[in-house]
Amino acid sequence: MSMKPLEFDRRYGELDQVISAYSGMPADDEPDRPSEALQAYLRHTWHTRPWALASAEQQIREYARNPPGRLRLSLGEFYPVPDVGLPESTIRDWLFVIADHLKQSIEQGEVPPPSTPRTHWEWHARFPELGQLLGGWFSQDMPDEFPDHDAAVRDYTATTDPQLVARLKGELHELIALALEESDYSLAVAELGMEVDPPQPYSPSGWLAHLTDGLNGFKADYGPGPATS
Q1: Rounded distance, CA 90 to CA 97, Å?
Q2: pTM of the shown model
Q3: So where are the chain's domains?
Q4: Staple 202 to which of 35, 61, 71, 206, CB 3.0 to 4.6 Å?
Q5: 56 CB contacts (<8 Å, ≥6 apart)?
Q6: pLDDT tens sequence across 153-211
Q7: pLDDT at residue 10, as a whole number
Q8: At 30, is the secondary structure helix, strand, or coil?
Q9: To 5 degrees, how large is the angle CA 110–CA 128–CA 161?
Q10: CA-to-CA distance for 98 and 94, rounded, in angstroms?
């Protein structure tokens, strides 16, 4: 019987978050050096959910101590570690190395300084609603679905909860405030799922600023107000 969602989260929820950070990244952690993927997880989690680090360390260490057999994996009773490019025989030791890095970071209070995201996972973890907009409304199919970029944005605001639109505004302000080089803004929108060029004459940063201005003027439609006498 597959594991219930609540039980899965209790036993493997934060373990899954850590392993997700390795998507497309090498699992090259060493005892004296965490991988780029683990550094991204530590950097983001310390600044957003620091209490989750202890859960991650505990879940990873427990999993490494009691690795599942093939039968229990096939029954859905254990978390199957995705392929991270390591031989199966080395996964257990690798997990212990990750757990040790997490423990050291917690016990010594090694809080990474804020930084521009450096991995695909970190871009999406830090800017989830912007990733939703760019990946969902500005894929390569966008020119076939909308007459222009502004029409795509209008469709997003018309079909998205106003609270999520407000979250998007905050993420846009945060991204613009990073004051990146233009090439880095190009990388940012690509990492977040945008597959079309910004409209002329905008650069990526200019279009993000234009998008922010447009959303600042957005007023949610809450329907007719209460009748007054």
Answers
A1: 11
A2: 0.87
A3: 5-107, 127-216
A4: 206
A5: 14, 15, 17, 18, 41, 45, 102
A6: 999 999 999 999 999 999 999 999 999 999 999 999 999 999 999 999 999 999 999 99
A7: 84
A8: strand
A9: 135
A10: 6
